[in-house]
Design goal:
alpha+beta; 4-stranded mixed β-sheet; 2 helices; about 25% strand
């Protein structure tokens, strides 16, 4: 984990969990994802998700049947949903 705030370079960031709101890949609606890994910086007051967490959420939403998700889901429940594909074959930057 990066131990420096991405916004102000403070070394005081802490790992917390929080709710985030995410638009589904098809753009039809948004969901609340509870207990999402989040970083909090007391120096600049930024609360954000790491690039890795953002990528994990976006990949998972792209690879699952989003019709099976309710309006609210926990991060762990979301990540445990079965995927329709093994990986995001359209992500050419990760390979």
């Amino acid at each position: 984990m990066n131990h420096t705030c991405e916004w102000c370079n403070s070394k005081k960031i802490t790992a917390i969990t929080s709710s985030v709101f995410w638009e589904l890949p098809d753009g039809t609606s948004a969901i609340e994802i509870k207990e999402t890994p989040t970083l909090s910086c007391p120096d600049c007051s930024m609360v954000y998700q790491s690039e890795r967490t953002v990528k994990e959420i976006e990949d998972q939403l792209f690879l699952i049947d989003c019709k099976k998700i309710g309006k609210v889901v926990s991060y762990q429940e979301l990540m445990a949903l079965p995927r329709l594909l093994k990986k995001n074959y359209f992500d050419f930057l990760s390979e």
